[in-house]
Amino acid sequence: MRPLLSHFDAETSVNSGQSFLWEKKGDAWYGVHADTIIKFYKRDGGFAFETFPENRGIEREMFRLDDDMESIAAEIGRDPLVQKLALQYPGLRLMRQDPSQCIISFVCASNTNIPMIRRMLGTLSRKYGEKITADGMQFHAFPSARALDRATEAELRACGLGYRAKAIKSATKAIATGALDLDQLKKASYDEAKEELLKIYGIGNKIADCILLFSLEKLDSFPIDVWIARALLGHYGWLAGRKMSEKLTERQYEDVSAAARKYFGRYAGYAQQFLYYHMRQDAGKKW
DNA sequence: ATGCAGGGACGAT
DNA sequence: ATCGTCCCTGCA
């Protein structure tokens, strides 16, 4: 185990609200990553990984184990609070999600809570995802955009999506037709990629920023949800400004997010994740 | 038991 | 720029 990774904690990372389809069975965690099930468990003071079907080494990609956490921590640690949190939660990492899965997941996330998001995605997976067997148990791959796009809005509603069904349809269509070119978005700048995402019905500022951060390599993205808004109000008054509240207008979102990105720097998204995790911990949330 | 919150976005004023 | 509304569920 390389010393740089010695503090990495897969369990904390998968339970930090950035990724949804994980469940613990016995001593092991099983997660859905597009077409593969990834399993991990503690071993020798670190973590061992297995994938179904076999996809060796995918954990480096998924958990961003190639990121240079020392320079990232040095960069975002210029802020005293984030510095403290990086030391307090040394195992927390951003994850690199599959873009299609990430888009569909966060479109489901609007105006609801994490348990509900998990329920919606679980139902979609069981209904539209391919079966995968792992350790004698049955799992489901995350449904492809194409498979979801074949369903009607009413059928998606029946999965407990509510009014989000319409937004899911617009997103799956954009992905399935190639109108949204995911590989291209990875190469594009933050602004260019965000502009493309915002064209899709159901994707606004916050959800676009989550997609950019968690699946499109935009580590400078700084999503602001109610929890981050609370953190900004409580600890970063000069960024929040006097008129900000927990609910941001579109204009406020843009101004405050831009200010935060400038303040925290090119890894602002990492700072955001430490703050988010801390606010949730502090509130005693159990995801 | 009615109200409200929960990783928001959209359309009408 | 504000404001009501959207489907659903758990919890006070």
Order of helices and strands: HEEEEHHHHHEEHHHHHHHHHH
Helix content: 40-55%
Gyration radius, in Å:
19 Å
Mean pLDDT: 95
Unreliably modeled segments:
none
Major sheet strand order: 1-2-3-4
Distance between the termini: 30 Å
Secondary-structure blueprint:
Blueprint: H1 10-14, E1 22-25, E2 28-33, E3 36-43, E4 46-52, H2 58-62, H3 69-76, H4 80-88, H5 99-107, H6 114-128, E5 131-134, E6 137-140, H7 145-150, H8 153-161, H9 164-177, H10 182-187, H11 190-198, H12 205-215, H13 226-235, H14 237-240, H15 250-264, H16 268-282
Antiparallel strand pairs: 1-2, 2-3, 3-4, 5-6
The chain binds a DNA duplex (13 and 12 nucleotides) through residues 17-18, 106, 109-117, 119-120, 157, 160-165, 167, 201-207, 210, 223-228, 247, 249-251, 276, 280.
How would you sum up this structure, described in words?
- It is a single chain.
- The protein has helices at 10-14, 58-62, 69-76, 80-88, 99-107, 114-128, 145-150, 153-161, 164-177, 182-187, 190-198, 205-215, 226-235, 237-240, 250-264, 268-282; strands at residues 22-25, 28-33, 36-43, 46-52, 131-134, 137-140.
- It has 287 residues and is an alpha+beta fold.
- α5 (99-107) runs antiparallel to α12.
- The chain is globular, with a radius of gyration of 19 Å.
- The structure holds a DNA duplex (13 and 12 nucleotides).
Characteristic key phrases:
single chain; 287 residues; 16 helices; DNA-binding; 11% strand; four-stranded antiparallel beta sheet; alpha+beta; 6 strands; two-stranded antiparallel sheet
Overview in brief:
Helices cover 52% and strands 11% of the residues. By secondary structure, the protein is an alpha+beta fold.
